[in-house]
Amino acid sequence: MRFKSLVLAASLCLASISSHAGVVYEWRPLNGQLPQHVTFRMEFSKAAVASGTLDFQVPFGDWEESYPDAGLLSIYFSTPGVAPISYRPREEQFRYGLGILDLNLTFGSDGLLSGRIYANDAHSHFEMNSQGSLFTILDARSDEDMNGAGCGNNWSICKGATGQLQRVDVPEPGSVALLGIGLLAAFGLRRHGPMRKFGGSRQISAQVA
Fold first, then answer.
1. Half-sphere exposure of residue 191, counting CA atoms within 13 Å on the CB side?
2. In the predicted structure, residue 66 carries a pLDDT above the cut 60
């Protein structure tokens, strides 16, 4: 019964994860210009990607806490030593409750994004535009020092890095769920296997005696 409970709990947990799964795009730098060592990731609903475009804005001072049909599930931008810009429209606002977000994007059939991105969480901001699928960071600044990105002290001009926002292949939620249940099943068989074997040995010994 305990093993069955574990399988059921894992199934429910993985089902919850799969219900929130989206399509992830990540930054791939193509030169060594500033800012360096950028971690930039965005996640979109499958419906938004299938539509081909996304036009989404959050004006400064908008205290709306939820955008259930935004198409954007999350945005995360960080450089070493600086608190990240993190925003999940369906769940929470920017860290300080104030910010600006302006996305005008096209999802290419080649798995690459193009368009314009601007995000400002009242502590840091960044802006990038693309020519085709090649994005250039036009400006990235912060109240904190951006030495880890090679940009020096706070509010130093930090721009010039080029790269692409590429779709990341993430395992389908159903496959992840099956893998998790399979691992639990294997663990359960491994635990109970020796016990069955031992039981069989006892029965044979009894017959011989």
1. 8
2. yes
